[in-house]
Amino acid sequence: GTYGTQTLLHTMKDRGLLPRLSAKLGELTRTNSEGLVGAQTSDRRYRKKHGTAKADFTRGVAITSSIHPDDNTHIEPVRYGRGSNAMGALTVL
Description:
Elements: H1 2-14, H2 43-50, E1 67-70, E2 73-75
Antiparallel strand pairs: 1-2
């Protein structure tokens, strides 16, 4: 990921292995996700709207689309596979 790559490049530059690497390395670094916004539903609400017994959002394509509403914003709907329950700790009920 970004952090590991930055560490590797800085180390190599400091050791003289990449002498032509820009001094700007790391100045515009950012994470892959500056903000997370979640949505969830109850099984009852999902069943009422869709007729199936239980909501399962773990199946399907992980990222289906992308939009840039302005020059500084990039939005992607993302789904997480079964077993990615650590994301649930980031939600507020």
